[in-house]
Specification:
- The chain is α+β, with helices and mostly antiparallel strands.
- Among the domains are: 101 residues, no CATH class; 57 residues, no CATH class.
- The chain has eleven helices and 13 strands.
- The strands form two sheets. It has an eleven-stranded antiparallel sheet with strand order 2-3-4-5-6-1-7-11-10-9-8.
- β4 and β5 form a beta hairpin.
- The longest helix is centred in the last third of the chain and has 17 residues.
Length: 350
């Protein structure tokens, strides 16, 4: 059965977990949660003090490992071949940005082959590792500078019965998320085997669900499914490392999914099941028929089925509230609201 800890430790007004539904032991456990990719930003001082270090390829002055170099217009970067740390220096009209990015576990291990998840409580250790490794690459970040969290990928891995895990990915692929474009990657066949679902806003991925076990070759398909939030705050909203550790991470993690978190959303395999559920939930046959029409349009044609974006957003909001979705290829009913709860809950313990 699913195990989560301290789910009630959330600030007032933040995401609030709903009671876990019991889907016949198809939830196995929370395998892991933590930071995946991290990027810390430095904007203080003068860009000229860093430009000599970004003049070309170099090496780690401690280990001798090579450091590659690249340049495109006003952006230059260095990449450590041993640890995977990447340093980007970019000029812009308001000044400059020096961003240090990498896999958190690889940075701590000083080995680019590491690909685990790191507790947010160790983000200070990741910052120290970045400063040390950047210094060995010839880029000395001032000790007085307060590095800001430029990007943080927050991930939860859930273990499932394989068949149910594959249905979870199919259910995510059918989930209409307001103001986001969904992008699905699948292996051909019937029913299609989903490998990943990515939700974009503009050019950037905001959240993705993917078969972590298949991607790493460490578990059968559907056994280990990751839901990863790629958090990229605007410069004025960026926090220091210490501030990020005290932030409402549950709300940050769940933000792209909106009210799907803490909602009784069910994904079903047939229109007949959807119709029956809508009649049970809508309160009247007329409302059930209206919701069914919206569901048909959203499922088959997406946002383009409606006269304008405002109407599409309103209709999708209504679907979130009624909580019934149809997914192609799903073999059985998926209590997706409970699944989303399970992904978010570990972040409530910070």
């Amino acid at each position: 059965m699913l195990q989560v800890t301290n789910a009630d430790a959330l600030p007032p007004g933040s995401w609030v977990p709903s009671p876990i539904r019991e889907p016949d032991d198809e939830f196995l456990h929370v395998a892991a949660h933590g930071l995946h990719t991290v990027s810390l930003a430095h904007r203080e001082g003068d860009v000229e003090e860093f430009e000599d270090a970004f003049a070309g390829p170099t090496w780690d002055i401690s280990t001798g490992e090579s450091v590659t170099y690249g340049c495109v217009y006003e952006r230059r970067w260095l990449c450590h071949t041993g640890t995977g740390l990447r340093l980007d220096l970019k000029r812009h009209p308001r000044g400059f940005l020096l961003a240090a990015s990498g896999n958190a576990s690889a940075l701590l291990a000083q080995d680019h082959t590491h690909d685990g998840l790191v507790p947010v409580a160790r983000l200070g250790d990741v910052e120290r590792a970045i400063r040390q490794q950047a210094g060995r690459m010839g880029v000395c970040l001032p000790r007085s500078s307060r590095l800001a969290v430029h990007r943080a990928d927050l991930a939860t891995d859930l273990g499932f019965d394989p068949a149910f895990g594959l249905d979870v990915l199919r259910a995510f692929a059918a989930l209409p998320v307001s103001r986001h474009e969904a992008e699905t990657h699948a292996i051909s066949g019937f029913p299609a085997v989903k490998k990943a679902v990515k939700w974009r806003r503009g050019e950037r991925i905001q959240m993705q669900a993917y078969d972590r076990g298949r991607a790493r070759g460490t578990a059968p398909p559907g056994t280990l499914v990751r839901l990863e939030r790629q958090y990229r705050p605007r410069p004025r909203d960026q926090m220091t490392v210490a501030e990020f550790g005290e932030a409402d991470l549950a709300t940050i993690y769940a933000a792209p999914l909106g009210s799907y978190a803490n909602a009784d959303v069910v994904v079903v395999p047939s229109w007949a099941m959807a119709d029956a559920l809508l009649q049970a939930r809508a309160g009247s046959d007329a409302k059930a028929l209206s919701h069914l029409g919206t569901l048909v349009r959203v499922t088959t044609r997406g946002d383009e089925a409606f006269a304008d974006r405002a109407t599409a957003r309103r209709r999708i909001r209504d679907l979130r509230q009624i909580g019934v979705i149809v997914a192609d290829g799903v073999q059985a009913e998926v209590p997706l609201g409970a699944v989303i709860d399970a992904y978010v809950r570990p972040w409530g313990s910070w």
